[in-house]
Write a structure and sequence with these properties.
The structure holds 2 protein chains of 2 kinds.
Chain A: H1 2-5, H2 8-33, H3 41-59, H4 62-86, H5 91-114, E1 119-120, E2 131-132, H6 142-146, E3 148-149, H7 151-169, H8 171-181, H9 183-188, H10 193-219, E4 223-224, H11 231-241, H12 246-268, H13 273-290, H14 296-304
Antiparallel strand pairs in A: 1-4, 2-3
Chain B: H1 2-8, H2 10-18, H3 21-39, H4 44-56, H5 60-82, H6 91-108, H7 113-142, H8 146-166, E1 190-191, E2 197-198, H9 200-217, H10 219-229, H11 231-236, H12 241-268, H13 275-278, H14 281-291, H15 296-320, H16 326-339, H17 352-368
Antiparallel strand pairs in B: 1-2
The chains are: A mainly alpha, B mainly alpha.
Chain lengths: ~300, ~375
């Protein structure tokens, strides 16, 4: 039974499920560090997925798709940055509204541009190529799973140590964290919180857009309405559980991705799709309960803000 | 008469309303809509014309009123929580979970309609309240933020109800995953106005009235508002904020569950898997409550506006070939603009807090004018 459930195919689908969550969560982590409450990951991911499919269709190349995905994510993130940073609007209200905006605009553009409803598939849409890394890809089991992968996957892998180094070993990373923890002190020292927060939100937009590209051009090759289906919210939880630390965020993303992959597998073994669909969210909730001591700050933020 | 008009100070109020961020944001959204439609190859003026016609002409008015019922209901549910500082994003799950419970009672309880229909609404409310209590107790007992848990539970509620209507409760005579049809006796009656509007409209208007009184004139209303404005101050003043959180979540969930029940026994008549969440009613309700700054009477107006947008959008889709989803875009843009405090330029001297106080004060004026 167990050997049937856990094999390299499961590992492969877990890695694929992990990449969008991890990319979005790393973006959320940067925002959290800069003191911006970021719950628009879901919408930016969805917009990224739509634009990635659009770009790939237009240029018949996944490269253009990835570029479009990033641009869309950044574009939407600017709305949030303008509202919360420049206009000091409520981050929760703006985050929710932006998610709904992304849901609405992708649902609107799908029939208006491509003339279809629900799902858009086309031979012109070019999926992400899986590029083998010479040497590493020949390692048994993990080689084909980890090192024969898409550019978005490699970006995700490299960003975990990369962002750790950036946040904890570079002056800019230190200032970014300073802006998040002591904005007034940072400002006194000549570090502009506005500037850092703008860049943090833009970075999260780019990463969520990339996550969307992986979702629509890597995991499948199509755009389906509302295809982010809660992954952006799971990423928000991954930031909380991982305490906004790259390694913690990676750990949480791996956990949720395995739940998703296991759900798919169990579906193949005859479990109803309704049960397996709920699995990642149930696992997420259980993880929250288990690790509940960790996020008092967010609770204060969301209850006192009102 | 002239004196009376003077006292109303209409000129000042109209000026205030016109420069209000809310009114400006609505105009801004419609203006952006023109650009969006034009860029995607449509004729914006024709589209807006069809949208307006679709919302009010023919059966449009009836449909607008019908769709306003759940939107206003869900907006009230959101306002109960939001004004108390409880960020409940689980309206959808509470609506769906309660909706199925109410449907089951309506289908399987024998008896006359005047007993079964209220019983179904109560069952839906109880189930919705139960579903809302999970994140509420999660926050008060385990310190898990309601914002996150209530949202994640939406997906779980979707899955559970989907499973139930596909297997144990399934109507095997049809291919869809759905419950049986609600029997004729257990349906919400329709009133003979505008060609048949569900009696639920009266219930929802009553609910608005109750909310307006409770929010403004009762001790509970005052205490919850204080907690929403400043939790620490409320606690210092002797309010049990934890108990209050559980209470407002239960009420919010109960309203959501009753709305879900109405959607089946007053409209769809079958609980089809995934159908209740398709139109995004719970989220529209949330945006309505935000636009109305949680004020019940304004929720009534904003709910009618957004309902009209959506029903009109369907007309626009039929006759101008522009997707009705433009309505959802416009709704979201309105809230983004309001939250970003977009307004006509009035000089820099106003502090942000000042402007915020005005948003609510002027929103009230809009309602009275």
């Amino acid at each position: 039974m167990f050997s049937q459930l856990f094999d390299s195919a499961l590992l492969d689908s877990a890695v694929r499920a992990m990449i969008p969550i991890l990319l979005a969560a790393l973006g959320g982590m940067i925002c959290e560090r800069a003191g911006v409450f970021q719950i628009a990951l879901e919408g930016m991911m969805l917009a990224g997925a739509f634009a990635a499919v659009g770009g790939s269709y237009l240029g018949e190349s996944w490269v253009l798709g990835v570029v479009f995905g990033i641009v869309a994510g950044v574009g939407i993130s600017l709305l949030l940055a303008f509202g919360t940073v420049s206009r000091r609007g409520d981050a929760i209200v703006l985050g929710i509204a932006i998610n709904l905006f992304a849901f609405g605009i992708t649902g609107f553009l799908l029939p208006q541009i491509f003339g279809v409803r629900g799902v858009f598939q086309h031979a012109r849409i070019d999926g992400l190529d899986r590029l083998a890394i010479p040497g590493l890809s020949e390692i048994p089991v993990i080689g084909p799973v980890l090192f024969t992968n898409t550019v978005t996957a490699y970006a995700a892998f490299l960003l975990v140590p990369g962002l750790w180094f950036f946040l904890f070993r570079t002056p800019i990373g230190l200032r970014l964290r300073g802006v998040g923890e002591r904005p007034v002190a940072a400002e006194t020292l000549g570090v502009s919180p506005t500037k850092y927060r703008y860049w943090a939100v833009i970075a999260s937009g780019a990463l969520s857009g990339l996550a969307g590209a992986q979702l629509a051009l890597g995991n499948v090759v199509q755009f389906a309405e509302n295809m982010s289906s809660g992954r952006g919210w799971v990423a928000v939880v991954a930031v909380m559980l991982g305490r906004a630390h790259p390694v913690g965020v990676l750990g949480a993303s791996v956990l949720f991705a395995f739940a998703e992959a296991l759900g798919f597998r169990l579906q193949g073994n005859g479990l109803p799709v309704q049960v397996t669909d709920a699995l990642p969210f149930v696992v997420t909730l259980i993880a929250l309960v288990v690790a509940r001591k960790r996020f008092a700050r967010l609770l204060d933020l969301t209850t006192a803000a009102g | 008469m002239a004196e009376f008009v003077d006292r109303l100070d209409l000129k000042r109020r109209l000026a205030a309303a016109a420069s209000s961020p809310v009114v400006f944001s609505i105009f801004f959204a419609f203006a952006l809509g023109v650009v969006i439609v034009a860029v995607t190859g449509g004729d914006p003026w024709n589209a807006y014309g069809e949208m307006f016609t679709g919302a009010v002409a023919g059966s449009g008015l009836r449909n607008t009123l019908a769709r306003a019922i759940p939107i206003i209901g869900m907006a009230l549910a959101v306002s109960v929580a939001f004004r108390s500082g409880v960020i409940n994003l689980g309206g959808e799950g509470q609506m769906v979970f309660g909706g199925l419970a109410g449907t089951v009672v309506a289908i399987y309880t024998p008896g006359p309609g005047f007993l079964v229909v209220p019983l179904a609404l109560i069952a839906g409310a109880v189930a919705g309240a139960f579903w809302a209590l999970l994140p509420a107790l999660g926050q008060t007992r385990l310190r898990l933020p309601i914002l996150i848990t209530s949202l994640l539970l939406n997906y779980v509620a979707r899955a559970i109800t989907g499973y139930l209507v596909r297997f144990p409760l399934a109507d095997v005579s049809v291919t869809l995953a759905t419950t049986k049809q609600v029997p004729e006796t257990a349906r919400m009656p329709k009133m003979p106005i505008f060609g048949g509007v569900s009696l639920s409209l009266v219930l929802v208007v009553l609910l608005v009235a109750v909310a307006a009184v409770v929010y403004r004139r009762s001790v509970v209303g005052y205490e919850t508002r204080m907690a929403g404005l400043n939790g620490r101050f409320a606690r210092y003043g002797g309010i049990d904020v934890e108990r209050q959180t559980v209470g407002v979540m239960a009420v919010a969930g109960a309203i959501g569950g009753a709305v879900g029940t109405h959607l089946i026994i007053g409209d769809a008549l079958r609980f089809i898997e995934g159908e209740l969440v398709l139109g995004g009613l719970a989220w529209t309700g949330l945006l309505v409550s935000l636009l109305a700054a949680n004020r019940p009477v304004l929720i009534l107006l904003a709910g009618l506006l957004f309902s009209g947008l959506q029903i009109g959008g369907l007309g626009m889709q039929r006759n101008a070939n522009v997707s009705w989803r433009l309505a959802q875009v416009l709704q979201a843009v309105v809230i983004i603009a309001v939250a970003s405090r977009l307004t006509v330029w009035r000089g820099k001297r106003r502090e942000a807090a000042d402007v915020e106080a005005e948003v609510t004060a002027e929103a009230a004026h809009v309602g009275e004018v």
